[in-house]
Design goal:
With 628 residues, this protein is α+β, with helices and mostly antiparallel strands. The chain is built from 23 helices and 22 strands. The radius of gyration is 33 Å and the shape is elongated.
Length: 628
């Protein structure tokens, strides 16, 4: 797997031809051995040549695998079958057995190659060269030569070569390849950019923060590659079954020989009993599902996570940054008496203009978006635990919490303010009051905005078979329950420290539930690690999220969760079909037919490899799976 900045992978057709050359050559040799002139010209059966060549390759691989694992492998049966067919003079049968085994491996590789296309497409999106500021001019340099701290120019239409921060210019970036979101994102000075995304419009200068394999794209490639190598519990069970299966088949062969004394039947049993379909059952499904998820912006770290994802029956959500956007926004602006809400907002924005508090930023942004007047403020002061005070165009303006009511010199608007604060706090919002010259003239409320897709995402989880959904948050209970009610979550545990979230997950697991925890990957890290499946939200650019969680959503769309849980469940079903229908079922039927003399070694090889091909093709259906 190539990392960004490295040499690009060869075209797919080159790899396909390279892998097809050996089984293709064997096929040509077998076809040639059937020609009568060649049979008459050679002192031995021409089929000996492809049988020996194919048998040598299979024998070498089997010996290496046996030495490495120190146990009998599936290849042991194939080697015995080749020796037996050679002994009885069925050279063409031995050649076909070798061809089918090698051809089956090629078919597996060819199909699995498709599951890696998502990652390779990401690699190709990284340009080979970058425009770097060097010696007082812009110069083209190989991406592999770019180092952190370099200043990189990204023009319209170009792919971003590094992870970095914009230091000059504005642009609209298409991040669909990384996050799965189709809507381009506006970026300006101070915003991060990620390798593999595309500059749709505008030119920006970027300071490189991460390059090559250290970029978010490089991390994705590594994670998906690791996922292809890791095995889940179902796969380990299949491997263990295959280990015991080989001695069992040898005993069956001994029984067939004892009863029939027909070596051809014994050879047919050996050929059809090779557990290739069983060994392929889980890895082909896992890799296909991981490839599907990667294309859609979700990283699943291997078979263990994927299989657990298919079994999850309890999901725990963090609130801030997961169900909500993690950024305060103005939720309400109301004037009391004959004062207009827009006027209240404008006065508050002027008073807060010198404050660094996130609430101040939310108020200022809301006034700017509403095209409110920009008033001048002087003599700014902050009263700890109350709010801020400023002289706004000659008026004494206060913006503060409930304690501000005790400092008002007039009773006007006090009752309305009390009612307003109580109403907004019931909705889980942070409520403020605004006074002018000692008179309360209105109220403002800010809130961490709910993700609009959150209710649909929770509903999709229940449709996917999740029986219990809970919110675990460090926020105040009133706010937490208000958000939970909006998204359809009944179980809320609030005011939790990170270690207490971990304890809550542990209690659920103690009840026998398979638990998934969904959080931002930083303060939720302990719970993400302990959960059967830890899922990090918005992992683009967040190393902690990618590394600590078993699964990471690269985008911000919660609706993908339902699809991923459905994908996990479908993967388990595909694995079971592969094992019981194509592996165990076909093998048992084939062993019975071969023992009864109804299958020759050649036909046994054909049936066996047809079963293996169906396993791979059945797993490949996961590449196109969509829950909706």
């Amino acid at each position: 797997m190539n990392a960004p900045g490295h040499a690009p992978a060869p075209p797919a057709w080159v790899s396909w031809l390279r892998k097809a050359s050996f089984p293709g050559s064997l096929l040509l040799l077998i076809l040639a051995s059937l020609l009568p002139p060649l049979k008459r010209a050679m002192p031995v059966d021409p089929a000996v040549v492809p049988m020996l060549i194919g048998g040598a390759v299979i024998g070498y691989r089997t010996i290496v695998a046996t030495i490495e694992t120190r146990r009998l492998t599936a290849g042991s049966l194939v080697v015995l079958a080749l020796i037996g067919t050679a002994y009885v003079g069925e050279y063409i049968a031995g050649a076909v057995v070798a061809l089918m085994m090698i051809g089956g491996e090629w078919l597996e590789d060819l199909t699995l190659e498709k599951t890696r296309n998502a990652v390779r497409a990401l690699v190709r999106l990284t340009p080979d060269e970058a425009t770097v500021w060097e010696a007082d001019e812009w110069r083209l340099r190989p991406v592999s030569a770019v180092t952190p701290g370099d200043r990189v120019l990204i023009r319209p239409g170009e792919s971003v070569p590094v992870d970095g921060t914009i230091v000059e210019g504005d642009a609209v970036l298409d991040e669909a390849t990384l996050t799965g979101e189709s809507t381009p994102v506006e970026k300006t000075v101070g915003d991060p950019v990620f390798a593999g995304t595309v500059n749709a419009s505008g030119a920006v200068e970027v300071t490189a923060d991460k390059v090559g394999a250290d970029t978010t794209l490089g991390t994705i490639i590594r994670v998906v590659h690791e996922a292809q190598e890791r095995k889940g519990s179902t796969q380990r069970a299949a491997d263990k079954f295959a280990t015991y299966f080989t001695p069992a088949i040898l005993l069956i062969c001994a029984g067939v020989w004892f009863v029939t004394h027909d070596l051809m039947r014994v050879m047919a049993v050996l050929v059809i009993a090779c557990p290739c379909a069983l060994v392929l059952a889980t890895p082909t499904a896992v890799v296909a599902a991981v490839g599907n998820a990667a294309k859609r912006g979700a990283l699943i770290k291997g078979g263990v996570v994927l299989e657990q994802l298919g079994r999850v029956d309890a999901v725990c959500f963090d609130k801030t940054g997961t169900l909500t956007r993690g950024k305060l926004e103005l939720a309400d602006a109301t004037g009391f008496g004959d004062v207009d809400g827009a006027a209240v907002l404008a006065l508050a924005a002027a008073a807060e203009s010198r404050s660094e508090h996130p609430i101040a930023r939310a108020i200022e942004d809301a006034n700017a978006n509403a095209d409110g007047p920009a008033m001048e403020s002087r003599s700014f002061a902050q009263a700890f635990g109350v709010g801020v005070r400023a002289d706004v165009e000659g008026a004494d303006v206060w913006v503060g919490n409930r304690r501000l009511l005790d400092q008002l010199t007039e009773d006007a608007g006090r009752d309305e303010a009390d009612r307003y604060l109580a109403e907004q706090e019931r909705k889980g919002r942070t409520a403020l009051v605004v006074s002018r010259d000692g008179i309360c003239i209105g109220g403002l409320a800010t809130a961490d905005a709910l993700r609009p897709e959150a209710p649909d995402a929770v509903a999709a989880l229940r449709e996917a078979g999740v029986s219990r959904v809970a919110m675990l948050t460090g926020d105040h209970e009133t706010t937490a329950r208000a958000i939970a009610a909006q998204v359809g979550i009944d179980e809320v545990v609030a005011q939790l420290l990170p270690t207490e979230k971990l304890e809550a997950v542990e209690r659920m697991k103690g009840e026998g539930l398979v638990v998934a925890m969904i959080g931002d990957g930083v303060n939720d890290a302990p719970a993400l690690t302990l959960a059967d499946v830890g899922i990090a939200m918005g992992a683009a650019g967040t190393d902690v999220a990618i590394e600590s969680a078993g699964m990471a959503l690269m985008g911000e769309d919660l609706r993908l969760l339902g699809d991923m849980f459905a994908l996990g469940r479908r993967t388990l079903r595909i694995i079971r079909q592969n094992i019981w229908v194509f592996a165990v079922g076909v093998n048992l039927a084939g062993i019975a037919l071969a023992s009864g003399g109804f299958l020759s070694p050649v036909m046994a090889a054909v049936v066996h490899n047809i079963a293996s091909a169906f396993v791979v093709l059945n797993s490949a259906r996961l590449l196109a799976f969509r829950a909706r």
